[in-house]
Amino acid sequence: MIYVTDGSFEGILSAIFEAYENKEIPESIVSRDFYQISLDTDVKEIHTNEEKSGRVYNAIIEKMSHEALETIYKAWLSEHYEVGTALYKYVKIGLKIGKKVLSYLQNPDVLLVNDLAHKVAFESHRFLGILRFKKLKNGLYYSRIEPDNNITMLIAEHFAQRMSDQSWIIHDAKRNVYALYDTNEIVFTNEEIPITSDGIVDTMFEQLWKNYFKTIAIESRKNPRLQRQYMPRRYWKNLTEVK
Amino acid sequence: MQLLEKLQILADSAKYDVSCSSSGSNRSNKKGQLGNASMAGICHSWADDGRCISLLKVLFTNYCIYDCKYCVNRVTNDIKRASFTPDELCELTIEFYRRNYIEGLFISSAVIKSPDYTMELIISALKKLRYEHKFNGYIHVKSIPGADLSLIYQAGLLADRMSINIELPSIQSLKLLAPQKDHQTIIKPMSYVSEQIQGANELTIYRKKQMFVPAGQTTQLIVGATRDNDLTILNLTQELYNRYKLKRVYYSAYVPVNTDTNLPAINTSPPLLREHRIYQADWLLRFYGFNAGELLDENHTSFDTRVDPKCDWALRNLDKFPVEINRAPIETLLRVPGIGFKMAQRIVRARRVAPLSFEDLRRMRVVLKRAQYFITCKGVYYGDADIDSGNLYSILSEKTDTKNIYGQISMFAQPVD
Ligand code: SF4
Prior knowledge:
Chain A is of the alpha/beta class. Chain A is built from 8 helices and 8 strands.
């Protein structure tokens, strides 16, 4: 039996609920986006349901801890094609052994969830550093990012605290997710916000920054391999100093 | 002079100071103001030499009245000179910060007119940043050797971190290469700052928190400008951590910039591998429970070029191995070559749930290449050579072109001695 969800976090939790309710053991829980129809397996379409997902959500907190919920949520943000199944197995083990599931790294599913959550946390931390704002003509600060994982939700709060007196937009161009901050609150949206390139007028400080970046390296220690290890090439096109 | 040119000159002369970290402070922001500090520190970019860029690192001025032999800015060098105004410095910091280029400012300076005069200039810029611009980002300030302690105190109230660079690891070297700097002008402010930090911490118990360099103080030692060996450097490091409670000691492989009979020739490559080994040893002191005497001694005064200091230690202490992964306390696991701090924690956590097999370790991505010779799992030894076979050194030696992280980089790696 394969459960097919809409891929949302609540969708996966709803599927987990149904597995328990129907006393079924689905072989996998997959997102519609990844699912390829095959003829010889049973497929069940799962409808995302707030009440069902809410019950699983609460059970995770009660039986396993907030930390486990955080791990599960972060792992989901990785958008890994097997994350639905792994989360299902993780929750199953967690409901049995409780909080200890966090440490049970001998188990491949627990390890996978743990690794995915770790990857997501690592990339969010990285983006606290390598995200760049450009000042627009109208005074707004705009940032375009293309992270591997869906991290906008995780990083927005940091910038709201830090740049609390400036309005900004963080735009995940891969997923078309926007975080908008107006010096008061953060709003997340998928609705396209038009940013034209002639709205960006920020040459002076970008020039100063590029120049600083070049100057600060020590010639006789040049080490492009090490540089790329810390700051992989795929991120460069949104990085002012190396673009 | 244009701001662009000034920035170029004053960043260029600041680049040999290697400390860049922005960690250790949790200064918070107030609504409607700019900036905060992150306890863990954040790297914003990596320069072409692979070093992290976290702070805007510049000199206030590179005009200097001193003549330290190893330094680009010494008075007898004919180089372009510039000074920022406090306003220019504030503008650069704030505008860079708003675009998320940096965590804050690292301000250092050559000595213009006098140490006190220089320190006052720096303080006036920092006051502007903190009070006029309400800037709560990270500030690392260098205290100028010879400046009055009351000025150092004022700077400490504005900064998150403070450093005073020892640079030369022994008094003899200092006499030779920086004759105008008395070693007391370095040690005195360092112990003063260390006392103030402790005092501020004690005060917090009774009163409202008074922030005095909340992220502590650091220093830098130059490696390879003098004849001082690794043992001298490591003993000094240990003393700095124990006695002065420094947060970090940084090491900078010497890049020759001047010609002098007492210095390495101008075309000498910086000793990056040696710097790397010293950093590894420094981590062993700070996080792995080693002390300097275990790593080096009078008969063993420099680090091995082909094995890291922990491995070197283990090979000299084979009688302490192998250790059982499922029972050894964490302090013992930390001494196993190939097992790092994070991994030791994961092992200890996981084995509380169920005993670990060799396969489990592999799956958890413990790097077993080196560890296999020093551990047993459920009593079984998995190393593919016997621990007493006498050829572990050659098995564990790094090949000349390893993918090693810190300074050991293929082309420029210069094994020392
Ligand atoms: S005082 Fe500082 S800047 Fe001046 S020459 Fe000595 S090391 Fe260089």
